């Protein structure tokens, strides 16, 4: 008899607790659904204030010392030319010399590649410039044929453009994206007859820097265009608000 009473009591208590847990679950579910998630966008266009440019030159000779001497002559011509164009000596950097042995190679009667006898050395050196005088370096890179006309085997690369105040730009875009997201959330709440509550969560996207009005794709880890002097930066902010 006592056992039956105890069993009934335990069952009743379990039922009551179950109702309590169910009520809390429904309450919490409704509370979590009573939110607004919005995404704001911050953009800014700016002009690069730093440029890098590089080129390489080479010499071939069967004698290593002779190749070094010839490359040194070309290096001096290039250095003097750059200085004459107003480039600061401290901005001109010559890399170490890359040395490659060359061999006369051919395919035998069976079509197999055969490395033949040694034919000499190929020495290559790179010169690079980093400067805040963007226009000057741009013009230099476009008129580099003047070096080629002096008999130097010179290969020029396209300039790369950067911006040194990117941290400030990022702060401005975050502020704009946050303001944009909040205004969107307020409008949604207003249209639904509610009011915006406290901010529950904020998630920032990665910065995307592209050429303005281009069709460049955004990437998951962020895009950073260096080929264009003019740039456009974008960033998104996702905000989640409670709704009253």
TrEMBL record:
Pfam families: SIMPL. Signal peptide: none annotated. GO terms for biological process: DNA damage response. It comes from the Bacteria. This is SIMPL domain-containing protein.
């Amino acid at each position: 008899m006592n056992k039956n009473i105890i069993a009934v009591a335990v069952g009743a208590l379990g039922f009551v607790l179950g109702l309590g847990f169910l009520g809390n679950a429904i309450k919490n579910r409704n509370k979590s659904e009573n939110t607004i998630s919005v995404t704001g966008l911050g953009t800014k266009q700016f002009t690069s204030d730093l440029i890098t440019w590089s080129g390489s030159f080479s010499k071939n000779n069967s004698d290593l010392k002779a190749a070094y001497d010839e490359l040194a002559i070309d290096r001096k011509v290039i250095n003097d030319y750059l200085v004459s164009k107003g480039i600061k000596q401290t901005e001109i950097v010559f890399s170490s010399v890359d040395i490659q042995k060359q061999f006369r190679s051919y395919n035998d009667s069976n079509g197999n590649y055969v490395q033949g006898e040694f034919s000499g050395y190929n020495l290559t050196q790179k010169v690079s410039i980093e400067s805040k005088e963007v226009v000057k370096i741009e013009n230099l890179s476009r008129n580099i044929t003047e070096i080629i006309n002096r008999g130097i085997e010179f290969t020029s690369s396209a300039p790369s453009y950067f911006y040194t105040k990117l941290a400030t730009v990022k702060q401005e875009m975050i502020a704009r994206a946050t303001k944009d997201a909040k205004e969107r959330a307020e409008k949604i709440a207003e249209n639904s007859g509610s009011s915006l509550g406290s901010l529950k969560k904020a998630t920032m996207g990665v910065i995307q820097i592209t050429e303005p009005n281009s069709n460049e794709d955004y990437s998951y880890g962020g895009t950073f265009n260096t080929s264009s002097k003019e740039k456009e930066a974008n960033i998104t902010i996702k905000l989640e608000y409670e709704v009253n």
